[in-house]
Amino acid sequence: MFRLLPAKYSQSNEWLSSPRGRLFVQYECDLLRQLLPRLTGYRCIQVGSWGFDRCELARAGTLCQWRVGVGDDPTADIIFDGRHLPLASGSVDAIVLAHGLEQVADPHALLRECARVLSDRGQIVVLAFNPLSLWALRQGLRTRRSPRFRPCSAPPSAGRLCDWFHLLDLAPEQIWRYGLGFPFFGNAWQSGKSARGFASVAWCAQAYAMVARRQVAPRTPIARRLGKRHPATAAGLARRGHRGVTCRR
C-alpha cells in the first residue's frame, strides 16, 4: 500500500518529474480532453495542483476557470488550507479534483466542501489513484530505488468513493480506468461500455476517473392537514351567480 508522508501536504514533484510520471500525466491529459468539454456552466475550479498546466483546464465548457491550490502554491489563483474552500455555497458549476484527495490530510472533509460549493445539477470530476492496484503495492516497498509516489492520505477506492458520493447527494455517471500498462498500453477504459474482458482486470488499474452530478430533490409544498374533512363538492353543480344568472364550474 501507499506510504504516507509525515508532512501535512505532499505534491510528489519528484515522482511527477520522472519518466513514468510524465507518461502518466500525458495519459491523464488525453482522458481530460474527453471529459472537460462536457462540463458546462459559468464557473469551473480545479482543486489541487497536479502535473498538467492551465491549458488543460481551459478545455472545460465553462466560461471561467480557476485553480485552487493547497498550501504554498505560486501557480494557484486561490490558496486554502485543505479543509475549507473560501467559496460561497452553490457558487461553482464544475469541479475538477485532480488527485486532490491525496494531497490533504482528510479527503472526506475536502469532498464535503466540494459538494457544498457545487451548484444544483453541477458536475465533479475526480482523478485518484487506485489503492488496490499492484502499482500502489509497489510504492510501499522500501527496496525501490526509483522515485515513489507518497501521498499525504490514502486515496479511496472506486467503490468507497461511490459511497461517499451517495451520502453527499451526488450521482456517479461515469467511471474510467487507466494507467501505465492498463488496459494494454495505457488506453482509458470506461466501465460498462467496453469489452467484457477488461472487467475482470479492472481492479488492478493504476488510477481511475469518476464523473458525478449533483442531485437535488424537488421541493413540493405540503398541504396543511385540516381538523375536519368536508365532503368534496360534486363537479359541475349549477350555482347561482350574479343577479340569478346560472353558472357552472
At the fold tier of CATH, the topology name is Rossmann fold
How many domain modules?
1
Mean pLDDT: 78
Helix content: 10-25%
Give the CATH class.
Alpha Beta
* Overall number of strands: 10
- Count of alpha/pi helices: 6
| Sheet with most strands | 8 strands, mixed
The H-and-E topology, N to C, reads as: HHEHEEEHEHHEEEEE
Per CATH, which architecture? Answer: 3-Layer(aba) Sandwich
- Looking at CATH, the homologous superfamily is Vaccinia Virus protein VP39
Q: Which radius of gyration do the C-alpha atoms yield?
A: 25 Å
Spans of at least 5 consecutive residues whose pLDDT stays below 50 are 6-11, 233-242, 245-249
Share in β-strands: 25-35%
Distance between the termini: 74 Å
Q: Structural class, please? A: alpha/beta
The general outline is globular
Strand order of the largest sheet: 3-2-1-4-5-8-6-7
What does this structure look like?
- There is one protein chain.
- The protein has 249 residues and is α/β, with parallel strands linked by helices.
- The protein has one domain: Rossmann fold (3-Layer(aba) Sandwich).
- The chain has six helices and ten strands, in the order ααβαβββαβααβββββ.
- It has helices at residues 13-16, 19-35, 54-57, 107-117, 134-139, 158-167, and strands at residues 40-47, 61-70, 78-80, 92-98, 118-129, 170-178, 189-190, 207-214, 238-240, 246-248.
- The relative contact order is 0.16.
Question: Could you outline the blueprint of secondary structure elements for this entry?
Answer:
Elements: H1 13-16, H2 19-35, E1 40-47, H3 54-57, E2 61-70, E3 78-80, E4 92-98, H4 107-117, E5 118-129, H5 134-139, H6 158-167, E6 170-178, E7 189-190, E8 207-214, E9 238-240, E10 246-248
